[in-house]
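ARCHIVE CARD
Drawer: 12
Card no.: 0347
Subject: one protein chain, sequence and derived structure
Cross-reference: see card 0346
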Amino acid sequence: MKKLLYILIPFMFLIACDDRKPDYADLNFDITEDAVYNRNNYNEFNITVQLSGKKDKIAYKYVYFEFDHDVATFFGGSTYSNVQTDENGYAEAELYIMDFDYRGEFHIQASYENQSVTRTIMVEDIPNIAILTADPETIPADGASQSRIRFELTSPSDNIVNQRINFTSNLGNLVPNTILTNEEGKGEIIFVSGEEVGAATIVAELAICPEEKSYVYVVCE
């Protein structure tokens, strides 16, 4: 019986201390953005890959990618490409939308050995600041008078909710100077005049695309 215990105890100790990793790698793949836009300079997005497992199974390995539409491409690549992991099994790459007529979701599949992971990203239109008004358009330059600034977004992609709009003005004050659109893609802020006479140029700018902006004027007299 003692001999059996002498044999079993070291064996049980080895099992309890065995932290050996499985003889394969786990594939993890993510897209850093939920949506991308069909316009130059706003059509890029990044992907990240992480292999987990033994060093010889994860280091300097190629992970292959396929798209279900000819919508995107790797920089300098094609719609079928790959990335190589570093010594820790990590890799990242930058892609961009090349079909500006495409709207909706598309899928990217990452494959390594017998594993594959698919992720989805949306291709959307950048909303347009279609309406920007001031009421009234003329107010006293007394440091207290107000004009109500209203705006409305439109977009074929219906992505007009919770869009951040930033406001600036060369005169007076804006309260607040940044706001999120409501469920109708609308919002309003208040312009408060200063004591300087002149035309206040109020600029509304879409946060996700600062090139998308609109102007309205309030005369302070």
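Annotation on reverse: The chain has a mean pLDDT of 88. Residues 25 and 53 are 5 Å apart (CA to CA).
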